[in-house]
UniProtKB/TrEMBL annotation:
Residue ranges of domain ABC transporter in the record: 15-244
Native organism: Candidatus Segetimicrobium genomatis
CDD domains xref list: ABC_NrtD_SsuB_transporters
Stored Gene3D superfamilies: P-loop containing nucleotide triphosphate hydrolases
InterPro entries registered for this protein in UniProt: AAA+_ATPase (IPR003593), ABC_transporter-like_ATP-bd (IPR003439), ABC_transporter_ATP-bind (IPR050166), P-loop_NTPase (IPR027417)
Domain of life assignment: Bacteria
Protein's recorded name: ABC transporter ATP-binding protein
Keywords, alphabetical: ATP-binding, Nucleotide-binding, Transport
Molecular function terms from GO: ATP binding; ATP hydrolysis activity
């Protein structure tokens, strides 16, 4: 069985964040959301990001996706290649476009990128197959279950062939069983494609199950307080890893790192 460290691919792009700060403009002046955030994600690595609510995780992902500008600091990311996005962002919950079929939803990012119609349909079908939704190509999002809709979102992100996949609590709205199934699917796709993934979650279980390393953020304004490697082998069978004593130790360690920050966030 491969250990996590053996699996980090080479030749792909990673993320390098140094001294990143962001202040939003509030009614009473600037309000800091991120303060001096520094970390690296290696090419092909799967990194989870956990932290109390409001600590700036979404803000960080939005900066990495180029949706908002930081106040200070630098981000080093792969350059965009023709027909390929540098990053793709998968949000929590409903972000499918209800008036488009599943196929058109998945092809949407490619349309925005200017990919010709025939090619974008082909690529969309390929990625729908990857998430097991080819049979629902012509359905509309409201005809799908929540888990299927979230698979459409994942296929849409993958279709743009990003070097880096940014995921912001993508499974938070799913029930436990469907969450486990989608985690399996994401891991399978990641093993095939070996994209660099930064995955935000509130679930310690999810962070341990999926990632090579967990970054822990402080209460607001967020910075990285520590990083915890996840030295569990892959593939990660849910039943097996739950019985691994290392799993319990990791969970206890993460909660130990997070508890004070969550209490601090709740007091503010
Ligand atoms: N557009 C905005 N304008 C002003 N303040 C904002 C804006 N977006 C976020 N904030 C503030 O920035 C801080 C960080 O918010 P952010 O959404 O990044 O946190 P988060 O860690 O993703 O929280 P959660 O875990 O609840 O999703 C919060 O205090 C929030 O109120
Ligand atoms: Mg958030």
């Amino acid at each position: 069985m491969l250990r996590a460290a053996d699996q980090v691919g080479t030749g792909l792009a990673g993320i390098d964040v140094a001294g990143l700060s962001k202040a939003y403009q509030g009614r009473h002046g600037p309000s800091p959301a991120l303060q001096d955030v520094t970390f690296t994600v290696r090419a092909g690595e799967f990194v989870a990001l956990i932290g109390p609510s409001g600590c700036g995780k979404t803000t960080l992902l939005h900066i990495l996706a180029g949706l908002i500008e930081p106040t200070a600091g630098s981000v080093s990311m792969p350059r965009r290649h023709p027909g390929r996005l540098g990053t793709a962002l998968v949000f929590q919950g409903a972000s499918t476009l209800p008036w488009m079929t599943v196929l058109d939803n998945v092809a949407y990012g490619l349309r925005v990128m200017g990919v010709p119609a025939r090619e974008r349909r082909e690529r969309a079908r390929q990625h729908l197959g990857q998430v097991g939704l080819l049979a629902s190509s012509e359905a509309y999002p409201h005809q799908l279950s929540e888990g299927m809709r979230q698979r459409v979102n994942i296929a849409r992100a993958l279709a743009t062939d990003p070097a880096i996949l940014l995921m912001d609590e993508p499974f938070a709205d799913l029930d436990e069983q469907n969450r486990l199934l989608l985690q399996d699917e994401l891991l399978r796709i990641w093993q095939e494609d070996r994209k660099t993934v930064l995955f935000v979650t509130h679930s310690l279980d999810e962070a341990i199950r999926l990632s090579d390393r967990v970054l822990v953020m402080s209460a607001s304004p967020g910075h990285i307080t520590t990083e915890v490697p996840v030295p569990l082998g892959r593939p990660r069978d849910f039943q097996k890893i739950r019985q691994d004593p290392a799993y319990g130790a990791l969970s206890a360690r993460l909660w130990g790192e997070l508890r004070e920050e969550v209490l601090r966030a709740n007091r503010s």
